[in-house]
Amino acid sequence: MRVFVTRRLPEHVLDRVRAIAETEVWPDEMPPSAESLREKTAEADGLLCLLTDRIDAQLLEGAKRLKVVSQMAVGYDNIDVRACVARGIAVGNTPGVLTETTADLAFALLLATARNIVAAERYTRSGEWRTWSPMLLTGPDVHHAVLGIVGMGRIGCEMARRAHGFSMRILYTANRTHEAAERDFGARQTDLDMLLAESDFVSLHLPYSASTRHFIGATELAKMKSTALLINTARGAVVDQTALVTALQAGTIAGAGLDVFETEPLPLDDPLLLLPNVTLLPHIGSASHATRTRMAELAAENLICGLRGEPLPHPVTA
Ligand code: DGY
Fold first, then answer.
1. How much distance in Å is there from the Cα of 298 to the middle of ligand 1?
2. For residues 216 and 214, what is the distance between their CA atoms, to the nearest angstrom?
3. Which residues of the chain are under the pLDDT cut of 50?
4. Cis bond leading into 265, ω under 30°?
5. Atom 2 (ligand 1): residue with closest C-alpha?
6. What CATH number matches the domain at 2-97+289-307, 3.40.50.920, 3.40.50.720, 3.40.50.300, 2.60.40.3450?
7. In this structure, which residue's CA is closest to atom 3 in ligand 1?
8. Ligand 1 centre distance from Cα of residue 191 (Å)
């Protein structure tokens, strides 16, 4: 059997895959081009891919031997799951292991944006710091503020746990009532309009799909407090980024902390880069050593099961 792995992974993980299949690993830091991916996948029984690889019907057309697509991420909006399922190709992802690490980053981004950490760090290095100054680099308090969590899944719930530790009042939107979060963290389920109107911080924890594209646009931003901050560690296209830039420029909202963007990497001429009231990160929500290693291990486990024709430990269904 043959496997194509679209980026270098820890050796112990690759060794597990090599033990059952002839394994080719894409050697570059940059992802394979669509053409290279098509060529490699055409000969593969298994594909271990990342969110930067587009797995669409066109690619699958030439992948006659492919049994399994294993994604090293919880999100899988780069994969046409329906097209895979229609061809009997199993799809797996890596949920669970990155929940707390991603919530840590979301909360760090919230704190950093509120308290001007990045600007303050730059200021400290710049030589501008001449004295202690009463209102220098002041921002809103995080403790006792209202946090609106849009999407109370695993990561949203861990965000609530962290917010509770900061004595925040927590509102959330979700398809179902999250009893544990209500009981343990005092979280209260609301509709989106109320959450937007009452929250000092709005944190997004929705998966990306056709139904969540531009979930937060000009209309929603206009419902937020002018002092509020928007935090996005989910997927860039959950927010209408053009509308967000306009809202940030106009003072409709006070700022944003973003780990994800509609186009990644963020183009160097993107207007977000000129705004002082944003904290911008390069999609590092799950980037701890332990979590990225665990994600790679889980992706290998899914891949191996798929190659053997066994049920995947973490299957994705259409
Ligand atoms: C995911 O897993 O979907 C994240 O975006 C990367 O960890």
1. 13
2. 5
3. none
4. yes
5. 73
6. 3.40.50.720
7. 75
8. 26
How far is residue 223's CA from residue 252's CA, in Å, rounded to a whole number? 9
Check if 73 has its Cβ closer than 6 Å to any atom of ligand 1: yes
| pLDDT (0 to 100) of residue 318 | 79
**C-beta neighbour count of 23 within 10 angstroms:** 20
**Within 13 A of 48's CA, how many CA atoms are on the CB side?**
32
Task: Please give the pLDDT value at position 92.
Answer: 98
CA of 53 relative to ligand 1 center, distance in Å: 13
Structural domain boundaries in the chain: 2-97+289-307, 99-280
Amino acid at 229: L
Give the nearest ligand 1 atom to 286 CA.
7
Atom of ligand 1 nearest to the CA of 94: 2
CB-based burial, 60-88: b 16+ in 10 Å, e otherwise:
beebeebbbbbbbbbbbbbbbbebbeeee
Greatest distance between any 2 Cα atoms in the chain: 68
Q: What's the Cα-to-Cα distance from 284 to each of 129, 216, 291, rounded to whole Å?
A: 30, 21, 11
Edge-first strand order for the sheet with 255-258 is: 188-189, 169-173, 146-150, 201-204, 229-232, 255-258, 278-280
Which residues participate in catalysis according to the annotation?
A: 235, 264, 283
Atom of ligand 1 nearest to the CA of 233: 5
Query: Partners of 201 in the beta sheet?
Result: 147, 229
